[in-house]
Amino acid sequence: MFGGFFIWFMWIEAEPLSIAFMDLITAGMDQTSDLRKHLLKSAPHLRLFIMGLVLLLTMRFMPKGIIPEETRLHSV
Predict the structure, then answer these.
(1) Could you tell me which residues come within 8 angstroms of residue 62 by beta carbon, excluding any fewer than 6 positions away?
(2) Lower CB density within 10 Å: C or N end of the chain?
(3) pTM for this structure?
(4) Low-confidence residues of the chain, pLDDT below 70?
């Protein structure tokens, strides 16, 4: 359940984070630059990259889940 919430939260927050990141990266450019305008306009598409990266890193470093299930020993 926590994993589902985490993925939903990252999906919601990925777009504003990508826009803020791209704004930071292009801060030194001229405000009227066509490249700056294009990068800022396409920044929301970074959501897909961020989500892919989050899923890849989660599966790589936490294959049993964010909160792994406890194993119980069966008593006879």
Answers:
(1) 68
(2) C
(3) 0.63
(4) 75-76
